[in-house]
Design brief:
About 50% of the residues lie in helices and about 10% in strands. It is an alpha+beta fold. Helix 3 runs antiparallel to helix 4, helix 3 packs antiparallel against helix 6 and helix 6 runs antiparallel to helix 7. The longest helix has 21 residues. The chain starts with a helix and ends with a helix.
Length: about 250
């Protein structure tokens, strides 16, 4: 997947060290040997034991002289879910390299009625924009999304900075996973994903998994190459508004 991308998505390759870790036994399978301590070669892979001090999660983790993309075993059997996860976590390993530091911002506004309702309306508008059959319909739907969002931010003044930060962190990881998954039905599947946002009970960290890929894909259509000149301090909705003259 990362070889097919060839570094085009972010200007750097997502190829690199990968670990698959089994939580019950803490055994790992890796695509590279360790640097500080050798792992056991087993054909084209390497096997080892993860120390208790290293947490096991789908994440990027420093261990044994490398920064690894770690995946929890078993990895998803279905596609495109497996490919999305692989590229999602590979992006987290290189995000510092492309000027996007990891972030964790509280989202208390999304536990409030006004915050939840406006987010769901924003997700529905983004889904309509992605599914639109012509530019005029897409423009109307994007304008709706960019109305519901600031309606929320007026009521919760701290929300914009927090939401933008999580979209740059988790949202762009999800966007990259979907973009590089080579899913021929990526747009319809993303629309379905946004539809599932109506059934989420807790949005504290999960909202960016919906809004981030939607704004990223809409930006790809409105301003191809936007990532090359993007000021990393700007939020994705602001970039989309500028690109579409809204």
């Amino acid at each position: 997947l990362c070889e097919a991308d060839g570094g085009r998505a972010w200007g750097v390759s997502l190829c690199g060290p990968v670990l698959i870790a089994a939580p019950a036994t803490r055994q790992v399978i890796a695509n590279m040997d360790g640097v500080d301590a050798p792992l056991e070669r087993d054909g084209v892979v390497f096997r080892g034991q993860l120390p208790d001090a290293v947490p096991i999660a789908n994440t990027a983790v420093p261990w044994n002289g490398r920064v690894w993309t770690m995946l929890v075993a078993p990895v998803p059997a279905d596609e495109p879910g497996r490919s999305i996860l692989l590229m999602y976590e590979a992006w987290h390993r290189i995000q510092d390299q492309i000027g996007l530091k990891a972030a964790n911002a509280d989202q208390p506004q999304l536990a409030m009625e006004a915050g939840r309702v406006s987010l769901r309306l924003e997700l529905r508008a983004l889904a309509a924009a992605l599914a639109a059959s012509d530019q005029a319909a897409r423009r109307v739907a994007v304008e709706d999304a960019l109305t519901f969002r600031p309606w929320r931010h007026v009521r919760f003044p701290e929300a914009q900075v927090a939401e933008d930060a999580m979209e740059r962190h988790e949202g762009l990881a999800e966007y990259t996973g979907r973009l590089l998954s080579r899913d021929e039905a990526m747009i319809p599947h993303l629309v379905e994903h946004l539809g599932r946002g109506d059934r989420v009970r807790e949005y504290a960290r999960s909202s960016a998994y919906y809004t981030g890929p939607a704004y990223g894909v809409l930006l790809d259509a409105a301003a191809p190459g936007w990532k090359a000149s993007w000021d990393r301090r700007e939020g994705l909705p602001q970039l989309l508004a500028q690109a579409m003259g809204l």
